[in-house]
Amino acid sequence: MNGNVNCSTEDNLFKQFLSIKASAGSGKTYNLASRFIELLGLYLKNKNFSVAIIPPKDLSSIIAITFTNKASLEMKDRVMKFLKGLGGIRKNELEKSDITKEDARKLLIHILKNFEHINVTTIDSFMNTLHKAFAVDLGVYPDYDITFDSEKIFESAVEMLFEDEKNFEDLINFLNTLLILDKDGMDGEKIIIKNLKEYHKIELPENVISYDELEKRIKGDINSAVSELNEYLLKEINDLSDKLNNLIDKYDTMFNGNKIKSYKLLDVDKVKKNYAKYHEFIENNNFNEILKKGGTIPPEEQKLFREILKEILKNFRYYLLLKYTKESEAIFKQIEKLKEKENDVQKRLNIVDGSQITKRITEILKSDSGVPYAFCNLGEQIMHYLIDEFQDTSRDQFEAIRPLLENSKGSGGSIFIVGDKKQSIYGWRGGDYTLFDEVDNDFALESITLKGNYRSGKDIVNFNNICFAKALLNDIPELIKKYDISENLSEEIKKVYSDASQIPVQDFKGYINIHLKKRNDEDTDDFYKNRLIRILETLFKRGANYSDIMILVRNNNDIETVVDWIHSKDQFKNIPFITDGNLKIINNFNIKKILLASSFIIDPEDTFYIKSVEELGLLNCFNDLNIYPSGYSPYEFFLSVIDLLKIENDLYLKRFLEEVAQLTLKGKNIREIIEYFYENQDISISSSDEADAIRIMSIHKSKGLQSEIVILPIFDWELYKTDRMYDYIPLSDVLEDYAGEEKIFTTINSLKDISETAKNIYEKKIKSQLIEGLNLMYVAQTRAVRELYITGMFSKNLSGSYPRPLRSSAILYEMLDNLEKYEDGSGIDYAIEKNEMGIFFVCGELKDFGSKSFEKNEDIKVNKCYSPDSIIFRIRKSFIDEPDIEDLREGMKLGTDIHKLLSVIRKIDDEKNIEAEVERAFKRSQILYDKKMFEMVINTVRDLKDYFIDIDDCWTEKEFVTKSGNIFRVDRIVKKGSFFYIIDYKTGDPKEEDRKQVDIYRRLIPYETTGIIYYIKKGEKLYVSSKSN
Asked: Within this chain, do residues 893 and 750 fall inside the same structural domain, yes or no?
């Protein structure tokens, strides 16, 4: 199905519960936005489209949940464009809607008035909203700070571990274990920290048995009180092996010489290698497999053979289990202690690790303590759910919102999920694509697949159809089976890629150029580099712009390599790039100068800073310096430094100052802000679509993006890894006749042959990794609009098989090698050449770029740099030419700016300082000076001076969650003595509900409070207290 799937059917029935499978380029954002428009239409008319559905009672009862901030912004933009189109303000892009022009304009105005109630948010933000509803149950204060700087929490916890004298012996055991496991390094502390970082993601369940307890259980099972159990087990294996050898020798002439060889002279290594084979032999009792033709052995001797072998396997299981549990226990103990320390850090600082929010919510939901009333009421408020990129939702995230979805389904709400299992590439972050089918079944969602591809040329679409809808479903599973990676893997691939075939919508062909070369270690880098340069040379000769080109790599480390390859050619040295690295503001030279100069000003005696500013030629800037840190707010201080260094405004500087402003509002000092930028090096500007530069990024970052030309210069990555994996298996898997619930924390790689649980865990993880590896291929190959270039290298041994683990280049080679089977009806004209050196493939047609016109949407010209207010500003800005909306827009901006100015004014020393404080507020909040606004703020502060001067404490823009699940932000709270005052600023005319709202605010604080409503334009105060109610 193509186009808009969301609108009501011909009989006017609204499709309440929908699941949309949206392959690459199929119009996912379009359908999400049109669904949102449809719900807005229901809200506007307040009319039942079917008996079962309750229309949205207000804007806040609709929520759209996206995966990233960028996706959230794109959806808001698309919704507003649709409404503008329906309202006759711009060209209408929506295929079908029953919203009239007049209704669309009403919606536009209503949305602008109530923009804060438009719930288009990220999954992380929504999880935080839920977390606030659980704050009391989780033992945190509702005004906690969220940090996504898990590294800082980790570092503080590790420091506490090292300082804990009681933990010293366990730390040494942990280090010894790491050395046994061949963990590299010479510095013990660094080895410990590096591996704690790796292991501390492991979950810690209950009922984990210790090594000592395990040893006791095994001794009980074998009825032995030996002191050295490991030595005893090894001796038992050797003694039993001797008995088995004697039995084999006794009937030597009866056995098949080649097949019996693996049963002779058994030791631990040989048993480990053949465990599955021995176990199968015992289970099937098939002696004919190891006997000569016509050979016989008495039944009692066959039974003895099996019993001896069974005892060998039993003792081997115990030996292996003890060995790996001993190693794992040292790891487990340190993980357990580390997590305790991390919890202590968060409680002490009243912060919450953003990456752990979802897990904390699901733990409460699974407990017997009951669901908080606030959470339940939140479910009553939000009734209509739109969830984007559902394949990237983690199981914990889904379990956190499941009760809300169930409530929606049972109470007349609606559910709309969109995603694509083929684009699930965030498994390492918890994304679980299997939820898609599970939710479809559990919630009885109607499933619709979008078949059209609106992005790529016909040949590109048809080529990918052959790769992923034909070869991957028919030939590749047979290849994978040979590698015995995981059971049922072929079936899993078919589940994910059953909807891969698409119908091309564009009428141009597009072009594909692929070269896969047989690997030669001596020229790997040269091959990749030279081919990339040749591709770029050809593109530039044909008139391609830098901005037409996107280069994708598997790993972030390859980005720098690719840049170096391109810059190695003299003609390419000045080519501009956009990468994740050069978007990070800490890598910008001017930002580095600002931070260095600021450090020098606050530590002018530090020899490092003196030498650094001297080498940069900045020392003269500080002659007759008139900047005193103690006399400035941090924001003013950094503005003065920027002025001193004469740094011109650009995106990096704007982003830097936005962050400084936020940190200043949080009360951070200058030194803390400098440290913040060095510790949070991922702070970036957003890339501009209009910048003429080559984009180089990881495949993960490219999801949701497209480019005229896509180059994959290193198409060769492992589809799965066989690294050591740690998890929990039930003790009953290993101890015979044991029915307890205790678990063992151990490495599952080595135990997958002796434990069914370990085998299932191992295969599930490998299966998930391989699917994700294939999905990375799919995402990479579907970003191109007009041209796709792929370069890879593969390895094959003399027998013609690929080395383990399988790599993306091997899969693509097999796809190309089987192309002829599927070319009929594909509509692509191609040329392919195969020889002992590799394979070369080309199809489609090339056109010069000089003659083509790229259409650009001029509807909204905006700076891509983001801030908390810029999302609202971008959307409001698009209405600037509309006379009937202009007054409303200006009024909203005035109200927003006044609230922001008042939020940065905290305490004032004296009434005569009011004017100076307001001037400072304009600087700190980055709001342009406006005389009218200036006077209104001064008058407000003067009228409320008793709540700015001689006060004990104050809080501005504080968020609270009520027992009913509502989240409120209070303008100002003031403490004077034992009394609290709540101040609510109003820029509009008085309304009846104003008093009720402030009364709700008063009840949020468990102390004697008085509410004050201040009407800024009128200069009037209204007091709200228990006496006035």
From this structure: no
**Is 501 annotated as ligand-binding?**
no
Q: Note the pLDDT of residue 379.
A: 67
How many of the other CB atoms lie within 10 Å of CB of 61?
A: 20
Instruction: Dump pLDDT digits (tens) for 781-834.
Output: 999 999 999 999 999 888 888 998 999 999 999 999 988 888 777 778 889 999
The residue with greater pLDDT, 292 or 522, is 292
Domain stops at, among 675, 707, 739: 675
Return the pLDDT at 114: 67
Q: Is residue 857 part of a domain?
A: no
The answer to whether the CB of 312 falls within 8 A of the CB of 241 is yes
d(CA 670, CA 672): 5
Q: Which tens digit of pLDDT belongs to each residue from 155-209?
A: 888 888 888 888 888 888 888 877 776 666 667 788 888 888 877 777 777 788 8
The C-alpha atoms of residue 154 and residue 575 are separated, in whole angstroms, by: 40
The amino acid that residue 280 corresponds to is E
Q: Which two tokens stand for residue 735?
A: 């101890």
Total Cβ atoms within 10 A of residue 353: 20
491: CATH: 3.40.50.300
Shared-domain flag, residues 931 and 904: yes
Residue pair 224/218 in contact by the 8 Å Cβ criterion: no
CA distances (Å), origin 501, targets 23, 371, 449, 478: 9, 44, 10, 20
What Rg do the C-alpha atoms of the chain give, in angstroms?
A: 33
CA-to-CA dists, residue 7 to 14, 42, 51, 97, 449, angstroms:
7, 11, 17, 7, 15
User: Are 676 and 634 spatial neighbours (Cβ–Cβ below 8 Å)?
Assistant: no
pLDDT band at 109 (very low <50, low <70, confident <90, very high): confident
Query: Is 224 annotated as a binding-site member?
Result: no
Phi, psi of 981 (to 5 degrees): -125, 130
Give the closest residue to 5 by CA, choosing from 447, 465, 647.
447
Name the average pLDDT for the chain. 82
- Among 445, 345, 396, 449, which Cα is nearest to 2's? 449
- The verdict on 507 and 546 lying in the same domain is yes
Alpha-carbon span 355 to 335, nearest angstrom: 17
116 and 193 belong to one structural domain:
no
The reply, when asked if residue 24 is annotated as ligand binding, is yes
Q: How far apart are CA 615 and CA 501, in angstroms?
A: 60
Known binding residue 895? Answer is no
pLDDT band at 914 (very low <50, low <70, confident <90, very high): very high
pLDDT of res. 857: 33
In terms of residue numbers, what domain contains 174?
153-349
Q: Is 29 annotated as a binding residue?
A: yes
Structure confidence at residue 886 (pLDDT):
43
Q: Is 22 annotated as a binding residue?
A: yes
- Please name every residue paired with 351 in a beta bridge, in sequence order, or none if there are none: 145
8 Å CB contact between 693 and 546: yes
Please write the tens of the pLDDT for every residue from 454-466: 999 999 999 999 9
